[in-house]
Structures are given as C-alpha cells and as structure tokens.
Amino acid sequence: MTPSKAPRWRHFAPILTALSLGCATIAMDTETDCIQRHPGLPEACGLTAAEASAIMAAGVGATGTHSNSEVDVNDYVDDPRLPAWKNRCMRNWNACADGLFSGPCTDCLRRCEGQHAWPFNLCRPARPKR
Amino acid sequence: MNPPDWSPLLDLARHVLRENAPLPLSDDVRALLIQTAAEVAVSDAASALQTDAGALALLRECARRITDGSNRLTDALHRMWKLQRQGDWDGARQEMRDVLAVEVVPFYRELATEQLEGMNDDP
What we know:
The complex is a heterodimer. By secondary structure, chain A is mainly α. Chain A has one domain. Chain A contains 5 helices and 2 strands, in the order ααααβαβ. A two-stranded antiparallel ribbon of chain A has the order 1-2. In chain A, helix 4 packs antiparallel against helix 5. The termini of chain A are far apart. The N terminus of chain A is likely disordered. In chain B, 72% of the residues lie in helices and 0% in strands. The interface between A and B is medium-sized, with 25 and 30 residues.
C-alpha cells in the first residue's frame, strides 16, 4: 500500500483510543480542561506529553493552586472511573512518552488494552543512564 | 535473556478465561503452555496437561503470574521513579529489592535487577 493510500483512520487513532477508554466526549474546550479530563492522554487534546506538562505547569504557577510542592506535573493521576488495569496501561504509556520506557509506546498501549498487562517485552524500562 | 512474547498465551487466556470458551488442547496449545510455564517458573507442566482440568489450571496460573508480575513491576517502577526524582535513592533501590524478594518470573526479575544495578553509582 503506497503512503498516499494509507488508511486515514491512523490520524484518528488517539481519538479512538480515548473513546475506547470510555471517554464519552472530547469537547474542544480549554486545553487545561481537556488535559485534566484525559490524564495521560495528551494526544486526545492534540498535544504531546511535553506540551501538556508545560501547560499544566504554567497553570499551576499562575494560580498557585498546588499546595504540595512535591506534586510532579508529569505524574499520571489515576482516573477512578477506569479499572485498575486501564490506569496502569495509561500510566505506563505516559511514562513511555516521557522516555522512561524504551519501545513503541502507542503499540504497547494497544497491546496493554487488549491483554490487561503491559507488554514489557516490547516496551521495557529504559536502561538507567550512567 | 530474549524477552518472552506472552501475547499468544494472554490471547488464549482472554478467549478461554474471560470469554468462557473451551480450552482447545491441540499440540500447538500444549506446546505453548509448556513453553510459557517454563518462562514463568511453573514446574511440572507436563503432568498438568494430562487432564483438561489440569490444563485449565495451568493456563490460569501462567496468566496470573504474567499479569501479577506486570502489575507489581509497574507499580514499583512508578514509585521508584518518583523516589528518584525526590532524591531518595535508598527508597528507590528498595522498591526493586522488594520486587526481587517476591517475584519468581525470570524476565521480571531481570528487569528489576537491571534497574537496581543502574542505581549502583547513585548516592
């Protein structure tokens, strides 16, 4: 299949992921609201993980709402609406996007969603830098 | 160690255990169960495969070790990374030691050991 004939559905993969995770709507409201509604899935808001983190960090700095100075804006916050296995999949995908895992992050997320277990053979923790 | 691909086993487990389909004990399935049992440190798989009930129990146990180990390592890694960011290297190392104290699956042990050894040069 030539690239020009590649399925267009690939461009909607992040949206499909969000929908498959039980997110009923992806309203195009503020970026902050979108990020908070889709923790660990910045692609659902058309953002990279780094962009989402920067937006949240800027929001925290402006409003001073964080009382715990140790809260890391990169930390994935479990969505209580999701089962534990889904949150683990999303948490690992988020970490993978941040470079803490080596491998095809989105492929691993897909595999995790199907098997309810992170495929450590495909996406293993990055070797510690020396 | 070549990373084991547990997709076929987990796909089979999903089909049989989650969707309540019968376990097809073909030669391929028997071979898959024996191989996976070795990879997750389950002994005496051959005996288990002599009965349908034994084969089903073997499938369930293999899937459990894969999934439990994945969950354990996932949770420990995230605690470890957070402790590293906070500069608590003793705490971070202990997370991997705690995994190694209970984990029997060789591949997961290898990953935990790699992370632990990677902190040898840290304070």
